[in-house]
Amino acid sequence: MHTPAPIGRTPAAADAPPAVVHLLGGTRRSIRLLGLIGMALACAPLVVRSEFHLTFMTLALYSTLLGSAWNILGGFGGQYSFGHAVFFGLGAYTGAILQVHAGLPAWTGLLAGSAIGGAAGAALGAISFRYGLRGSYFALVTLAMAEVFRIIANSVPFTGAGVGMMIELRSGPADLQFESRQGYYYFALALALVALAVSSWVRHSRFGAALAAVRDNEDAARALGIDATRIKVAATALSGSLMAAGGVFYLQYFHYIDPMLVFGPAVSVEALLGPIVGGLGTVLGPLIGAFALALVSQVATQALGQAPALSMALYGVILIVMVTFLPRGLGRLRLRRGRHA
Amino acid sequence: MIDSALIGAALWPALVNGLTMGAIYALIALGLTLIYGVLHIINFAHGSLLMVALYAVLVLFERLGIDPYAALVVVVPGMFGIGYVLQRFVINPARHGRDENTLLVTLGLSIVIENLASHFFKTDTRQIETAYTFMMVDLAGAVISMPRLLAFAGALASCLALAVLMRSTDLGRAIRAVAREAQGARVVGIDVDHVFAMSFAIGLACLGAAACFLLPTYYVSPQVGHGFVLIAFTVVVLGGMGSFTGSLVGGLLVGVIESLGGLLLGESLGQIGVFVIFIVILLFRPAGLFGQRT
Amino acid sequence: MSETMSEPTSNATPSAAAAPGRRQFLRVSGVLAASAGAAPGLLLAQPAPIKVGVLLPLTGAVAYPGQQSREGVMLAVEDINGRGGIQSLGGAKLDTLVADAQSQPQVGAAEVDKLNEAGVCAIVGPYASAIAFATTQAAARHNIACVLDQAVADQITSRGLKNVFRFGPSYEMAVRTGINNFHILNTVAGKPVKSVIVVHEESLFGTGTAATIARDLPALGYEVLEVIKHANPTRDFNNIALRIKARNPDVVMQANYLNEFALLLRTLRQQGVRPKAMYSIFGGGGSNPKVAKELGEAAEGVLDCNHWFNPRDKRGAALRARVEKKGLTFTHELLMGYNATMLLADAIERAKSIRREAIIDALAASTWADHFMPYGPTRFVNGQNQGAQPVVTQILKGDVRVVLPNTYAEAEAIFPATRG
């Protein structure tokens, strides 16, 4: 039996030197690409004069963050989660509770939220993977987890139960609230770039190679001496932590959360849609997917704005058509000729 | 918070009530488990398709005066046809053998179906009143409505019918062969795509039956399916993915757990019981109560 | 554009219109001359229409109330334009730009930016409180007035945003009035009611209402036997009905949405539970004429403290008749969408301008009295109309009737219920 090919270009990835060296070596091109994209996006507000377009891009970057978070576990790790809202909600509630009940500044919420998201990811991963859950079973357990947290948030007093929580209107970068649309744009961009950088690291590191090996053939990976459970738990933690940061962003942007808004299935769906459309298990897939979906949604609204339900239906139709004709995602379009589809 | 005398008095009615509600869950889950068992796809459009069936029952009742139970004759074959077409011409071409595509296409379908319903049926909630809506039956102190009792019988009958279909017909044998080993079935000359579509169609036919039994005690709106998707998944997992007996028993169990959870913990927090059991089953016995270990 | 709009034009002397107006006139007639078949006479000297944003959830979880509200907004626009538009702006017509918030706060907020760029002078909407938190804040940045159609959560108007205006009662106001009115009903009837069970849905609205009821009723001498929370959706109410049956309260109070409201009523009837009264505050279906009709006897006598028009003003009934003639259901969402738009039109009239600041100032100083709600003239403090109040309605013979307060009552309340 031959060893499952790691996803990186170098066949020796599995026994490559420490991650940092590898990161510098094999991935210079990808780092350069990410840097270029980051710079272009950072310059965008200088060109984009319309606030609506800036908001559109801000929300697409926020969606990129959620998608990248999901993609680390779902794309690189092959473990589909239907309940990523669980991490998102934990992040949002951590931020809100620290600000409202403890009077702490917003940035502590971002740190603590991400930490708790990571810890929750580790816990969820540990429970699920120890019991050997895979495929649909893992997906369903995450789905149920999100529901359990939604019901808990709805029932305990310190989350405000069904009433939800609201943070005070302040303005200033220290409060992670911004007077201008540009402020939120750069906040979203910073978070999205962190998520993309982490994705890029995962894609090219030894950790990522091990994760891909586990995804492609878990038994073979184990035979190679990879601790599959530990790798998957780590991926879930990483994914959960980034997703939680998304929850904090939501809180800072919209100031009000309730159990359905942050633990509801809509969040989980938003997280998985982008990467699948853009290209599962690719670094830029979530970015491409998020912008493409946002664009499709705008196109549908433009086309049938007078009948909102029909424009939503059109959005659904485009989604189906895209899956049918671009089965490997938009991001892999150019690869179709090279590899067999 | 709640005194024990009250619980004691309500225990039997709550049990009966949970069983009859569970029968509806079982009916909805029957279709889902068949689709999962054969096609290995998680059908996110299941709730929306239930909604379609409910509207069909409503329209037949309001426009043509057809009784919901008589509507079985129309709605069940109708849903069967929709299922065949959907699987054959929409879902299958989009699958490309990738789970994430199936996920996306069923998700996309549910968006399309739900919004088309909002557009054509408007978004308000509709219910029907039949002569037997308020007809009550007393079962040793537990008073339940006639439609709920009929739904219970309907679930048993549907389950039995499915079991017969699967055991004693060529189609059933083909479905079981494909469920076990699709590649192998293809090799021995079974038209796998046709069997896939038939399975999906039968799954939706079950939804059609569920709708006929559900509407007399419930309501329909474009969003109505959401309330049943998660619960149906729970039933499927509890019973074992792909198992009909499991679905029936799982449905009844979930109905009872939900009912007793509501009685003991309150109707909001009580919902948690269902999901905790769901998680525990997934962790400790992922094959469910009646499923085969994979 | 706003400068030319704010120019006061006199109806009596069209020829005295300023030079820009004349140039415009010439240009318009030139265009019209080119397009045969148009009716130039109607369009002559017509000022540019006033763009008003209508931001509501038209798809998703709260699509139904959102769509109802939109119908109300559109009827109001029809009326305003029908009677000659905004007089102080030379009869300028209202032009609505409808946006769908998709029942999601983030979509609502993004649509605000879009409406801003489309040049709206104010926004009506967005029905749900959770969406309003996001949209009012987004609109504040552009100084766009938000006239809330419902969005009853108190925090929306209490967090210091200057651009938010709510014509109807806030949630706290409604609950307070609801409890008082209930006490009045019972006192007048000789206090037959002593015990209460509260059934509520689990989100902001139901949870808050139930908490206030449970806190305030005991001080008025009532015993709250139990507070029962339920999920959305709740598929089965038999357990709750059985608990109510076992506790045997005099009154069941509901704070939930339409589907659950109707399902509980039906289940109570199936289980033979007949309390002395069914009372709700902002009840999902308690003052919905369609529920009254469809549920028949199960809904008879149901009391609801909600937004409703003054039945002694003929215009309310006329609006209702118009709505029903179109095959729609007349609900309070529709009524409040209509009112919010009328309030805005009045403010634009007073502002004599479509400058956003001027409209915000006009709303803040508004003393609008020409409406058919049981409120009196508007007076805004921190964006909340102080005179707003809900009324108590009861379903009597399959229709919704106002029974309290007495100044507006059109029928005598049946309390306690007489059915056997």
How many individual β-strands of chain B? 2
Mean pLDDT of chain A: 87
- Calculate the mean pLDDT score of chain B and round it: 89
The low-pLDDT segments of chain A are 1-26, 335-341
Poorly predicted sequence stretches spanning 5 or more consecutive residues of chain B: none
Span between N and C termini of chain B? 45 Å
* SSE order of chain B: HHHHEEHHHHHHH
Summed up, the helix count of chain A is 15
CATH class of chain A: Mainly Alpha
Helix content of chain A: over 70%
Written description of the protein model:
The complex is a heterotrimer of chains A (341), B (294) and C (420). The longest helix of chain A has 27 residues, at 228-254. Chain A has helices at residues 19-26, 28-47, 51-74, 85-100, 106-130, 135-153, 181-204, 206-216, 218-223, 228-254, 259-263, 265-278, 285-304, 308-325, 335-338; strands at 165-166, 256-257. Chain A contains 15 helices and two strands. The longest helix of chain B has 36 residues, at 4-39. Chain B is built from eleven helices and two strands, in the order ααααββααααααα. Chain B has a two-stranded antiparallel sheet. Helix content of chain B is 73%, strand content 3%. By secondary structure, chain B is an all-alpha fold. The mean pLDDT of chain B is 89. Chain C is an alpha/beta fold and 420 residues long. Chain C folds into two domains: 48-169 and 314-385, 3-Layer(aba) Sandwich (Rossmann fold), CATH 3.40.50.2300; 172-306 and 391-404, 3-Layer(aba) Sandwich (Rossmann fold), CATH 3.40.50. Chain C has 15 helices and 14 strands. In chain C, the strands form three sheets. A seven-stranded mixed beta sheet of chain C has the order 7-6-8-9-10-13-14, with helices on both faces. Chain C has a five-stranded parallel beta sheet with strand order 2-1-3-4-5, with helices on both faces. Chain C has a two-stranded antiparallel sheet with strand order 11-12. In chain C, a hairpin with a 2-residue loop joins strand 11 (380-381) and strand 12 (384-385). Chain C is globular. The chains are: A mainly alpha (341), B mainly alpha (294), C alpha/beta (420). Chains in contact: A-B, A-C, B-C.
